[in-house]
Prior knowledge:
Blueprint (H helix, E strand, L loop, with lengths): L1 E7 L6 E6 L3 E6 L7 H13 L9 E5 L7 E7 L2 H14 L1 H4 L5 H25 L6 H14 L7 E11 L2 E10 L2 E8 L2 E8 L5 E5 L7 E5 L4 E5 L4 H21 L21 H19 L7 E11 L4 E10 L2 E6 L6 E5 L3 E6 L10 E5 L4 E5 L4 H14 L49 H4 L2 H8 L7 H20 L9 H8 L7 H9 L1 H7 L3 H9 L5 H9 L13 H17 L9 H11 L2 H15 L9 H17 L1 H10 L2 H10 L8 H14 L1 H14 L1 H6 L3 H13 L1 E2 L11 H6 L8 E2 H12 L4 H31 L7 H21 L5 H4 L6 H4 L1 E2 L1 H11 L8 H12 L7 E2 H13 L2 H10 L14 H10 L11 H22 L3 H7 L4 H12 L12 E2 H14 L6 H30 L16 H8 L1 H20 L19 H11 L10 H6 L7 H5 L8 E2 L1 H9 L2 H8 L4 H10 L12 H8 L1
Parallel strand pairs: 20-21
Antiparallel strand pairs: 1-5, 2-3, 3-4, 4-5, 6-7, 6-12, 7-8, 8-9, 10-11, 11-12, 13-14, 13-19, 14-15, 15-16, 17-18, 18-19, 22-23, 24-25
Keywords: Calcium, GTPase activation, Membrane, Metal-binding, Phosphoprotein, Repeat, Transmembrane, Transmembrane helix
Function: May act as a GTPase-activating protein for Rab family protein(s).
Membrane topology: Single-pass membrane protein
Amino acid sequence: MWITPEEVLLANALWVSERANPFFILQRRKGHGKGGGFTGLLVGTLDVVLDSSARVAPYRILHQTGDSQIFWSIACGTSRKEITEHWEWLEANLLQTLSIFDNEDDITTFVKGKIQGIMAEENKSLLAQDDEDSGKFREAELKMRKLFGMPEEEKLVNYYSCSYWKGRVPRQGWLYLTVNHICFYSFLLGKEVTLVVQWTDVTQLEKNATLLFPESVRVSTRGTQHFFSMFLNINDTFKLMEQLANIAMRQLLDNEAFSADRTLPKPCKTLKNVSALKRDLDARAKNERYRALFRLTQDERLDGHTDCTLWTPFAKMHVVGQMFVSNNYICFASREEDMCQLIIPLREVSIVEKADSSSVLPSPLSISTKNKTNFLFANLKDRDFLVQRISDFLQRTPERLWSEGDQLPLSGQSETPSPTTPTFPSSPPSLGSGEPLHRYYSSDLPTAKHGLLHIYQKDAPEEEMGPKAAKEKMKEESWNIHFFEFGRGVCMYRTSKTRELVLNGIPESLRGELWLLFSGAQNEMATHPGYYAELVEQAMGRCNLATEEIERDLHRSMPEHHAFQNEMGIAALRRVLTAYAYRNPNIGYCQAMNIVTSVLLLYCTEEEAFWLLVALCERMLPDYYNTRVVGALVDQGVFEELTRECLPLLYEHMQDLGVISTISLSWFLTLFLSVMPFHSAVLLVDCFFYEGIKLIFQVSLAVLHANMEQLMASNDEGEAMTILGRYLDNVVNKQTVSPPIPHLHALLTSGDEPPPEIDVFELVKSSYEKFGSLRADVIEQMRFKQRLKVIQSLEDTAKRSVVRAIMTDSAFSIEELEDLYVLFKAKHIMSCYWGASSTATERHDPSLPYLEQYRIDPGQFGELFSVLGPWGCGVHTATLSSRLFRLLDQNKDGLINFKEFVTGLSGMYHGDMTEKLKILYKLHLPPALCPEEAESALEATQFFTDDDTPEDSPFLSHLDFLVQEVTEGEEVKEAGDSGNGDSEDKKEEKVKDYKYYLRMWAKEKEPKKETIKDLPRMNQEQFIELCKTLYNMFSEDPLEQELYHAIATVASLLLRIGEVGKKFTNNGANKKVLEPQPQPQPSVDGPEKEDSNGEGSSAQSLICKALAEAQLESVGPPGATSGAGGSDEEGKDDTSVSSYSVVSAGELQCEDIADDTVLVGCGGNGSGDRRRGSAPDADWSITFEQVLASMLTEPVLVDYFERKRDILAKMAACKMQRAVERQTSSSSDHELAQLST
Length: 1237
């Protein structure tokens, strides 16, 4: 490429001049290409270690004038071909012009101006793309693509200098982290190391420090481990690797590719060696931490944060911390954890103003809300800019972010909805009067105004509960005092005092309100008024898998509670679950959701319960309730790791019994609601909404710790489960004012003597005392580690399930099927990030069985078939793969699943000769043979369908034809005689046998196995295509000549058979069936006599022409002409000559056609018969039995098709080959030699 002219002082240092003229010099870097000796090795090593641009651009062109010792670099190139094009352009366009100049300075000025002008023209398109990346980074990305053969779609995120440990020897080089791969390259003294690992293959990513590998990063895949060390900043590198691995795991889980954030604000100046993608990922990491800290929605983006102080009226002091500003919120978090936290939605803000500065209160900022609350911030570094940003966000904040007329936003929906996203009408269905029709939900429903517990307690008679009622009143009063001091609602100050009140239990009257507040669901509900009501109207009445599962589980949701023993509670639960399944089809419905939602409905209205369920499923318990409960499995792994750290002795014993994985799943999925008495579990739910998942881990560890002695003494899994079950059954809440609800699990597991009761408040207190040091960021780190394990384990399980399901229908071994599945899935995943004709989300349906979840399109199938197919057909391979794809694509959706893929390959590799020929035969019939490939195929098919002649009869002789006619005549005659009999007797004989009909119906439902009799006939144009394919198949075989002889003989024989069949078809169509006329037996030279009339010559000349064309395609040199006037050099290839002689040696019995004319074409000179020979004969046809019988006459063909082929070697080659998806490498020195000659 052309580069900005730069001065070069030492032109020949480390460079070799290859071409020169008075004004320009073309140079090659020492060490590049062949030769170079030790100096070349040393230069190459220095280029890699020092990250020299010469490694990626080993060619350059310098400008020099006269005796001047100053050179100017004006162009560089990654390949010799590229730099040669620049050199030729300079010679053709500048040399003559430069020779006119007299002054050397003028020459240099002109050249520099010309090059800069060319670059300006080329950069116009680049400027339109707003490329932010620095020149140094773009150079590194170009180097990455060249070294590893990556396409333009693969984006580099960052690159680092490090050492890769190969054995015990470190190799210094460069680590390239792209969106989808981790790559490493090293070149030291001639030793080249190249490593490419897909992120989707990573099973473990760890940062550790050992004696052997000091402070290194270990990247593990299923088969290998890779160690990298000597990073300048290992923490930053490891965080980025974690992010990229997380993106890959999300891709495996949801089949969604990474998409860059186009709305990311541009930096004020171009950052050195920092890509836009790296900035994007850094911003994503900050957004995730920000949203998790303040429980905000997934679309909230952090704009910035700054240090400041906040005046806390309850403590009468300024608290040091940080202010966070995003598009919808202003948040504050104290530096000291739990001291103070504040969330101010911009929708609540009325005034933002700068207060007067003083020595006590520098740079203050006052924010007032609509409920007359003032918040005073101070010590702001850039107050003016901050006020401007907040003002901008306030201007963009509408009064109502969503109204009933808007389209319903679904979970995961982007700004541009995908084709799979359901769309909604602009308004809900209405009656003729114009008012909305509320068929399923209205604000007048009791559950729309109050929680179920309030409804039923209102109807129940009031009873004095004594001390318990007094305790409840005291709790309510404590919260009212707290609201008075710290505020009420979203803008409440959240301090350690708030946590103490939550741990002491939330009063039942405030439970719904505080759950909404602490979970962040109140913000979503406030910004989406009317959303739930319209969603219910859209969702109810639909029937799908989720609604069926919901109906099945409705009456299993807390059946012991009287609120769900009638239709009111059941109907409310149905509406909430159905609405959420419709909002988020990726999750739909999971069994544990009914238990959690039923508890939410007891304390909240329907709409509030819905938004709490959204917060649980999409933020607080991510991936818990999808089809594979990945989130719960991840946290189960985290719990095991925490048990190993906190209770090591118990962990070892429990692992031997296999208990931890069994108990923890139900604890996490239902938040203890299914294993603990209701009023005790609800207290844990209170704490969970405030603390998050940390509380569940703490309590789980406390339960194990409380039962450690008994668990250590247990001998099997059942005994350990009984110990834990009885303990949890007897965790009681002695402060509840509600009547006790019988716990079904406790009734089933109660023993002879009741165990002691455990106060739930004491259990929570104990969990904080013993395990309160758990931190949310540590849990997230452990979750990442476990997520890799869990998702890769699920992928392995899916692979085994697929192999088990398909192995009975396939002849491949288990190992072969597993390898094929890996390749098939890799091809599907590659389409996610390198583009395809259809999006991967359209191809991936999690509701389908594993066998049908992943599908590939024709292009990807062609890439796999070209490597794995047993029949190599050269340039014809693409055509053959397209036909095979159409044959396998039974539902005609343009995609095939793994089962269909294996079915096609299995017959080719492990079928007998008949099976292989059947596949080959069907590849040349519709639908495999498309109309564009054979235009007359449909006409021929229609001709044979309309013809009275039965399709199954092979026309081998007059005798066969006559016997068939006579047989049919006898059947017609018998039918006529029977028609004259007594019809009443006939009716009596036909007694209805229902069992018989049932058997017949069952047989019809059974999949019919296709026989060779079921295959349709093949017309002449299809036969020509078959001959082309066979000819290409044999072009690379060691027995090429023998196979050519054999296929020519078979083609000749099939032509005669087709001609004989055509003759009798035409004759038979003009005669009556019952009056057959004797015909003379055809002699051997019958077809040869047909040749003299032109018809046989027509068919055979087409075959000759087809074989010649196929031969020229596969054997002839590039650019060789097919005419008779081609040069001698172009036709002197040994293989080509021998192949010509095979066809022209009279094997096809074309006696009246010259050898050279047959090969070049049949329509070149002449007669009307010859011109008629250029069109296929529509009356000509053959059957599969005839093709098979003809093939069996040639032993060399039998050996070819019976030969066993090894797919393992091809799969190994496919794994190594990346050229299919990636660009080819640069031209070699040998290619340049051809170019320059």
